[in-house]
Amino acid sequence: MNDQPLTVSELVELVEETFDSLLQLVESAPQDKMEEPGVSGKWSLKDILAHITWYEEQMVEAMEARALIGSEWWELPTHERNTKIYEEYRSARLQDVLADATATHQQMVHWIGTLTDADLNEPDHFEAMPEDWTFGEILAQNTYEHYGDHAASIAKWISRLENRD
Predict the structure, then answer these.
(1) What would the pLDDT profile of 118-127 be if each residue is shown by its tens digit?
(2) Distance (Å, rounded) from C-alpha 119 to C-alpha 63?
(3) Domain residue spans in the chain?
(4) Is the pTM of this model over 0.85?
């Protein structure tokens, strides 16, 4: 993240723009392929959406509590945590994952709107926040930066599908 402090309105704009771009990609994918492995390793598009939603749910919990809290899975290395998320949601119905992704995102944007610029940029505004962290950085990593991480693999997967036809 850059060294300039982020404002709440800038964060909301970034989160909304990047999530909308991600949703446009998702909507451009054939519905009958959304549960097909191979978008990112063995993950399907459905798995990626469930994964992103889990991280957004964690951000909602932290904002509600105004504390750096969350699942015990945060204690795990990233790969192990992501494997747990995959295993937890891989049997979920596609329609449920899509609905949860939208609802959770809306809830998260609502909670971001309750923050102040200081909440984003000053560590002491959230309990249990390490001194060298800010909640704005954590939100960036778990929202717009995260969407971008997955958007590239989704776009490549869609391109591969189009070239197969």
Answers:
(1) 999 998 999 9
(2) 10
(3) 8-24+37-164
(4) yes
